Amino acid sequence: MPDLLRLVAVPVFAWIAVRDIKTRRVSSGVWIPLTILGFVALVWEGRLAWAAGDYAWRYAFLIPTAVSLGFVVPIAYLFWWFGGFGGADAKALLVLALLFPTFPQYTIGSWTLPLTTTPIGTFSFTILTNAVVVGLAIPLVIAVRNAAAGRITSVMVIGWPVSWEAIPETHGRLLETPEGRSRGGLDLDALRMYLRWRGLSLADVRDHPDRYRDPTTLPAEPNPPTDGAVTAAVRRDGGAALEANTPDTTDDTSSEDDDPWGAAAFLADIEGTAYGTTPAELREGLEVLAEKDTVWVSPGAPFLVPVFVGLAIALVYGDLLIGTLL
Protein backbone atom coordinates (compact mmCIF):
# COMPACT_ATOMS: atom_id res chain seq x y z
CA MET A 1 0.00 0.00 0.00
CA PRO A 2 2.77 2.57 0.67
CA ASP A 3 4.20 1.82 -2.79
CA LEU A 4 0.79 2.32 -4.41
CA LEU A 5 0.37 5.58 -2.51
CA ARG A 6 3.70 6.81 -3.90
CA LEU A 7 2.47 6.40 -7.47
CA VAL A 8 0.31 9.50 -6.90
CA ALA A 9 3.53 11.49 -7.28
CA VAL A 10 4.20 10.25 -10.83
CA PRO A 11 1.58 12.34 -12.68
CA VAL A 12 2.51 15.32 -10.50
CA PHE A 13 6.15 15.05 -11.58
CA ALA A 14 4.99 14.69 -15.20
CA TRP A 15 3.06 17.97 -14.84
CA ILE A 16 6.08 19.61 -13.18
CA ALA A 17 8.33 18.54 -16.08
CA VAL A 18 5.94 19.92 -18.68
CA ARG A 19 5.58 23.20 -16.80
CA ASP A 20 9.35 23.48 -16.45
CA ILE A 21 9.75 23.08 -20.21
CA LYS A 22 7.13 25.74 -20.96
CA THR A 23 7.85 28.33 -18.28
CA ARG A 24 11.03 27.32 -16.39
CA ARG A 25 9.03 28.12 -13.27
CA VAL A 26 7.59 25.71 -10.68
CA SER A 27 5.52 26.96 -7.76
CA SER A 28 7.02 26.19 -4.36
CA GLY A 29 3.55 25.18 -3.19
CA VAL A 30 3.66 21.97 -5.22
CA TRP A 31 6.34 20.48 -2.97
CA ILE A 32 4.31 20.72 0.25
CA PRO A 33 1.68 18.06 -0.56
CA LEU A 34 4.39 15.82 -2.05
CA THR A 35 6.40 16.13 1.15
CA ILE A 36 3.35 15.22 3.25
CA LEU A 37 2.67 12.26 0.94
CA GLY A 38 6.26 11.10 1.30
CA PHE A 39 6.19 11.38 5.08
CA VAL A 40 2.93 9.41 5.35
CA ALA A 41 4.24 6.65 3.05
CA LEU A 42 7.55 6.53 4.94
CA VAL A 43 5.92 6.12 8.35
CA TRP A 44 3.48 3.56 6.96
CA GLU A 45 6.25 1.49 5.40
CA GLY A 46 8.37 1.76 8.54
CA ARG A 47 5.58 0.32 10.67
CA LEU A 48 5.09 -2.55 8.21
CA ALA A 49 8.83 -3.29 8.16
CA TRP A 50 8.99 -3.22 11.97
CA ALA A 51 6.12 -5.70 12.19
CA ALA A 52 7.78 -7.98 9.62
CA GLY A 53 10.82 -8.59 11.77
CA ASP A 54 14.40 -7.49 12.33
CA TYR A 55 15.70 -8.35 8.84
CA ALA A 56 12.97 -6.44 7.00
CA TRP A 57 13.29 -3.50 9.39
CA ARG A 58 17.06 -3.26 9.20
CA TYR A 59 17.99 -4.26 5.65
CA ALA A 60 14.86 -3.60 3.60
CA PHE A 61 13.90 -0.31 5.26
CA LEU A 62 16.37 1.27 7.68
CA ILE A 63 19.57 1.12 5.62
CA PRO A 64 18.04 2.29 2.29
CA THR A 65 16.17 5.07 4.10
CA ALA A 66 19.34 6.18 5.89
CA VAL A 67 21.21 6.34 2.57
CA SER A 68 18.34 8.22 0.91
CA LEU A 69 18.00 10.86 3.62
CA GLY A 70 21.66 10.93 4.65
CA PHE A 71 23.28 10.87 1.21
CA VAL A 72 20.87 11.95 -1.53
CA VAL A 73 19.54 14.90 0.47
CA PRO A 74 23.03 16.37 1.16
CA ILE A 75 24.00 15.85 -2.50
CA ALA A 76 20.95 17.80 -3.67
CA TYR A 77 21.63 20.57 -1.18
CA LEU A 78 25.33 20.84 -2.10
CA PHE A 79 24.63 20.94 -5.83
CA TRP A 80 22.12 23.73 -5.21
CA TRP A 81 24.57 25.58 -2.96
CA PHE A 82 27.31 25.52 -5.61
CA GLY A 83 24.94 26.45 -8.43
CA GLY A 84 24.78 23.06 -10.13
CA PHE A 85 21.02 22.81 -9.57
CA GLY A 86 18.24 25.33 -9.55
CA GLY A 87 16.05 25.66 -6.48
CA ALA A 88 13.24 23.59 -8.00
CA ASP A 89 15.68 20.86 -9.05
CA ALA A 90 17.04 20.56 -5.52
CA LYS A 91 13.55 20.53 -4.00
CA ALA A 92 12.51 17.77 -6.40
CA LEU A 93 15.40 15.57 -5.30
CA LEU A 94 14.75 16.30 -1.63
CA VAL A 95 11.10 15.28 -2.06
CA LEU A 96 12.07 12.14 -4.00
CA ALA A 97 14.50 11.16 -1.24
CA LEU A 98 11.56 11.20 1.18
CA LEU A 99 9.05 9.68 -1.24
CA PHE A 100 11.16 6.81 -2.57
CA PRO A 101 13.80 5.81 -0.01
CA THR A 102 13.33 2.07 -0.69
CA PHE A 103 12.75 0.12 -3.89
CA PRO A 104 9.02 -0.17 -4.55
CA GLN A 105 7.56 -3.35 -5.99
CA TYR A 106 4.64 -3.65 -8.38
CA THR A 107 3.21 -6.84 -9.86
CA ILE A 108 1.52 -6.69 -13.26
CA GLY A 109 0.50 -10.18 -14.35
CA SER A 110 3.69 -12.23 -14.44
CA TRP A 111 5.87 -9.11 -14.38
CA THR A 112 7.42 -7.64 -11.26
CA LEU A 113 8.56 -4.06 -11.58
CA PRO A 114 11.16 -2.62 -11.41
CA LEU A 115 12.91 -5.31 -13.44
CA THR A 116 16.27 -4.70 -11.75
CA THR A 117 17.34 -3.67 -8.27
CA THR A 118 20.58 -2.51 -6.66
CA PRO A 119 22.47 -4.11 -3.76
CA ILE A 120 21.90 -1.16 -1.45
CA GLY A 121 18.23 -0.79 -2.42
CA THR A 122 17.99 3.03 -2.27
CA PHE A 123 15.48 3.99 -4.94
CA SER A 124 15.98 7.77 -4.79
CA PHE A 125 19.67 7.28 -5.63
CA THR A 126 18.62 5.18 -8.63
CA ILE A 127 16.32 8.03 -9.77
CA LEU A 128 19.21 10.48 -9.41
CA THR A 129 21.68 8.37 -11.40
CA ASN A 130 19.06 7.73 -14.10
CA ALA A 131 18.41 11.47 -14.33
CA VAL A 132 22.13 12.16 -14.74
CA VAL A 133 22.39 9.57 -17.54
CA VAL A 134 19.37 11.05 -19.32
CA GLY A 135 20.75 14.57 -18.84
CA LEU A 136 24.10 13.57 -20.35
CA ALA A 137 22.31 12.15 -23.39
CA ILE A 138 20.61 15.47 -24.20
CA PRO A 139 23.72 17.09 -25.82
CA LEU A 140 24.08 14.00 -28.02
CA VAL A 141 20.48 14.36 -29.19
CA ILE A 142 21.03 18.06 -29.93
CA ALA A 143 24.21 17.30 -31.88
CA VAL A 144 22.50 14.60 -33.96
CA ARG A 145 19.61 16.97 -34.70
CA ASN A 146 21.98 19.70 -35.90
CA ALA A 147 24.16 17.29 -37.89
CA ALA A 148 21.10 15.89 -39.66
CA ALA A 149 20.18 19.44 -40.68
CA GLY A 150 23.73 20.17 -41.84
CA ARG A 151 24.40 22.65 -39.06
CA ILE A 152 28.02 21.85 -38.20
CA THR A 153 29.35 24.50 -35.82
CA SER A 154 31.33 24.80 -32.61
CA VAL A 155 28.11 25.07 -30.58
CA MET A 156 26.09 22.32 -32.30
CA VAL A 157 26.24 20.16 -29.14
CA ILE A 158 24.61 22.73 -26.87
CA GLY A 159 22.23 24.76 -29.01
CA TRP A 160 20.30 25.34 -32.21
CA PRO A 161 19.22 28.32 -34.36
CA VAL A 162 16.11 30.29 -33.40
CA SER A 163 14.33 33.08 -35.26
CA TRP A 164 14.45 36.45 -33.52
CA GLU A 165 10.64 36.48 -33.47
CA ALA A 166 10.65 33.44 -31.18
CA ILE A 167 13.22 34.86 -28.75
CA PRO A 168 10.67 36.62 -26.46
CA GLU A 169 9.12 33.22 -25.66
CA THR A 170 12.31 31.13 -25.75
CA HIS A 171 14.19 29.97 -22.68
CA GLY A 172 17.92 29.55 -22.59
CA ARG A 173 21.06 31.50 -23.29
CA LEU A 174 22.23 33.35 -26.38
CA LEU A 175 25.26 31.68 -27.95
CA GLU A 176 26.36 34.65 -30.01
CA THR A 177 28.20 37.92 -29.52
CA PRO A 178 29.02 40.61 -32.11
CA GLU A 179 32.39 38.88 -32.57
CA GLY A 180 30.87 35.46 -33.34
CA ARG A 181 29.58 32.30 -31.68
CA SER A 182 30.17 31.86 -27.96
CA ARG A 183 29.50 29.08 -25.45
CA GLY A 184 28.12 31.57 -22.95
CA GLY A 185 26.06 34.68 -23.58
CA LEU A 186 23.01 36.66 -22.55
CA ASP A 187 20.39 34.86 -20.47
CA LEU A 188 17.07 35.33 -22.28
CA ASP A 189 15.21 35.77 -18.99
CA ALA A 190 17.47 38.77 -18.32
CA LEU A 191 16.66 40.10 -21.79
CA ARG A 192 12.93 39.95 -21.03
CA MET A 193 13.52 41.74 -17.74
CA TYR A 194 15.36 44.53 -19.53
CA LEU A 195 12.72 44.96 -22.25
CA ARG A 196 9.90 45.05 -19.71
CA TRP A 197 11.83 47.51 -17.58
CA ARG A 198 12.02 49.85 -20.58
CA GLY A 199 8.49 49.10 -21.76
CA LEU A 200 9.72 47.82 -25.12
CA SER A 201 9.37 44.80 -27.33
CA LEU A 202 12.23 43.19 -29.20
CA ALA A 203 10.59 44.44 -32.41
CA ASP A 204 10.89 48.02 -31.09
CA VAL A 205 14.60 47.51 -30.52
CA ARG A 206 15.10 46.11 -34.02
CA ASP A 207 13.10 48.90 -35.64
CA HIS A 208 14.98 51.72 -33.85
CA PRO A 209 18.31 50.39 -32.52
CA ASP A 210 20.08 53.76 -32.68
CA ARG A 211 17.36 55.41 -30.63
CA TYR A 212 17.26 52.85 -27.85
CA ARG A 213 21.01 52.42 -27.79
CA ASP A 214 21.16 55.98 -26.44
CA PRO A 215 20.88 55.89 -22.61
CA THR A 216 19.27 59.33 -22.57
CA THR A 217 16.07 57.62 -23.77
CA LEU A 218 15.74 55.58 -20.58
CA PRO A 219 12.40 56.08 -18.82
CA ALA A 220 12.31 58.30 -15.75
CA GLU A 221 9.94 55.80 -14.12
CA PRO A 222 10.79 52.32 -15.42
CA ASN A 223 8.25 49.51 -15.54
CA PRO A 224 8.51 46.47 -13.24
CA PRO A 225 11.05 44.08 -14.82
CA THR A 226 9.29 40.95 -13.46
CA ASP A 227 11.47 37.85 -13.15
CA GLY A 228 11.79 37.30 -16.87
CA ALA A 229 9.20 34.51 -17.09
CA VAL A 230 7.49 34.28 -20.47
CA THR A 231 4.08 34.08 -18.77
CA ALA A 232 4.50 37.17 -16.59
CA ALA A 233 1.88 39.91 -16.86
CA VAL A 234 3.70 43.04 -18.00
CA ARG A 235 2.99 46.65 -18.82
CA ARG A 236 4.20 47.79 -22.22
CA ASP A 237 4.10 51.35 -23.46
CA GLY A 238 6.02 50.73 -26.66
CA GLY A 239 8.59 53.30 -25.67
CA ALA A 240 6.10 56.14 -26.00
CA ALA A 241 6.95 57.52 -22.58
CA LEU A 242 10.65 57.58 -23.28
CA GLU A 243 10.76 60.62 -25.56
CA ALA A 244 8.98 62.75 -22.96
CA ASN A 245 11.62 61.83 -20.41
CA THR A 246 14.63 62.42 -22.66
CA PRO A 247 16.77 65.12 -21.03
CA ASP A 248 17.73 68.11 -23.14
CA THR A 249 21.47 68.22 -22.66
CA THR A 250 24.64 68.32 -24.70
CA ASP A 251 26.83 67.12 -21.85
CA ASP A 252 29.13 64.33 -23.05
CA THR A 253 28.58 62.45 -19.78
CA SER A 254 25.07 61.56 -20.93
CA SER A 255 26.19 60.25 -24.31
CA GLU A 256 25.65 56.80 -25.67
CA ASP A 257 29.33 55.91 -25.18
CA ASP A 258 28.99 55.98 -21.38
CA ASP A 259 26.34 53.27 -21.13
CA PRO A 260 25.07 51.91 -24.47
CA TRP A 261 21.51 50.61 -24.23
CA GLY A 262 21.38 51.79 -20.61
CA ALA A 263 22.55 48.32 -19.58
CA ALA A 264 24.42 49.44 -16.48
CA ALA A 265 21.55 51.72 -15.44
CA PHE A 266 19.09 48.83 -15.73
CA LEU A 267 21.17 46.45 -13.61
CA ALA A 268 21.77 49.17 -11.02
CA ASP A 269 18.06 50.00 -10.79
CA ILE A 270 16.55 46.54 -10.33
CA GLU A 271 16.53 44.64 -7.06
CA GLY A 272 19.03 41.79 -7.00
CA THR A 273 20.68 40.64 -10.22
CA ALA A 274 19.37 39.61 -13.63
CA TYR A 275 20.61 36.02 -13.37
CA GLY A 276 24.21 37.15 -13.04
CA THR A 277 24.10 39.20 -16.24
CA THR A 278 26.77 41.86 -16.67
CA PRO A 279 26.31 45.14 -18.57
CA ALA A 280 28.72 43.88 -21.25
CA GLU A 281 26.70 40.67 -21.77
CA LEU A 282 23.46 42.62 -22.04
CA ARG A 283 24.94 45.09 -24.53
CA GLU A 284 26.45 42.34 -26.68
CA GLY A 285 23.18 40.40 -26.70
CA LEU A 286 21.17 43.46 -27.71
CA GLU A 287 23.61 44.26 -30.51
CA VAL A 288 23.24 40.74 -31.90
CA LEU A 289 19.45 40.66 -31.61
CA ALA A 290 19.11 44.12 -33.15
CA GLU A 291 20.80 42.93 -36.34
CA LYS A 292 20.46 39.17 -36.86
CA ASP A 293 17.29 37.44 -38.00
CA THR A 294 18.37 34.03 -36.67
CA VAL A 295 20.55 33.42 -33.63
CA TRP A 296 21.93 30.35 -31.88
CA VAL A 297 20.47 29.62 -28.47
CA SER A 298 21.29 27.02 -25.85
CA PRO A 299 17.96 25.71 -24.53
CA GLY A 300 19.45 24.96 -21.13
CA ALA A 301 17.24 21.86 -20.75
CA PRO A 302 15.68 21.96 -17.28
CA PHE A 303 16.89 19.16 -14.99
CA LEU A 304 13.35 18.41 -13.85
CA VAL A 305 12.73 16.77 -17.22
CA PRO A 306 15.57 14.21 -16.79
CA VAL A 307 14.38 13.74 -13.19
CA PHE A 308 10.90 12.73 -14.35
CA VAL A 309 12.28 10.51 -17.10
CA GLY A 310 14.70 8.98 -14.58
CA LEU A 311 11.77 8.31 -12.22
CA ALA A 312 9.73 6.65 -14.98
CA ILE A 313 12.68 4.47 -16.04
CA ALA A 314 13.39 3.55 -12.42
CA LEU A 315 9.81 2.43 -11.82
CA VAL A 316 9.79 0.20 -14.89
CA TYR A 317 13.37 -0.96 -15.38
CA GLY A 318 15.35 0.11 -12.34
CA ASP A 319 18.92 1.43 -12.35
CA LEU A 320 20.26 2.17 -15.84
CA LEU A 321 23.90 1.98 -14.76
CA ILE A 322 23.99 -0.89 -12.31
CA GLY A 323 21.19 -2.82 -14.03
CA THR A 324 23.07 -2.95 -17.33
CA LEU A 325 26.39 -3.86 -15.70
CA LEU A 326 25.16 -6.71 -13.50
UniProtKB/TrEMBL annotation:
Residues covered by the Preflagellin peptidase C-terminal domain: 280-320
Keyword check for Cell membrane: yes
UniProt biased composition (Acidic residues): 249-260
Molecular-function GO terms, alphabetical: aspartic-type endopeptidase activity
Residue ranges the record marks as coiled coil: none
Residues spanning the membrane: 26-44, 56-80, 92-111, 123-144, 303-325
A GO CC term attached to the entry: plasma membrane
Keywords on record: Cell membrane, Cell projection, Cilium, Flagellum, Membrane, Transmembrane, Transmembrane helix
InterPro entries assigned to the protein according to its UniProt record, in alphabetical order: Preflagellin_Peptidase (IPR052218), Preflagellin_peptidase_C (IPR009655), Prepilin_IV_endopep_pep (IPR000045)
Protein localization: Cell membrane
The Prepilin type IV endopeptidase peptidase domain, residue ranges: 8-136
Its membrane topology: Multi-pass membrane protein
Principal location listed in the UniProt entry: membrane
Region Disordered: start-end pairs: 208-260
Entry protein name: Preflagellin peptidase FlaK
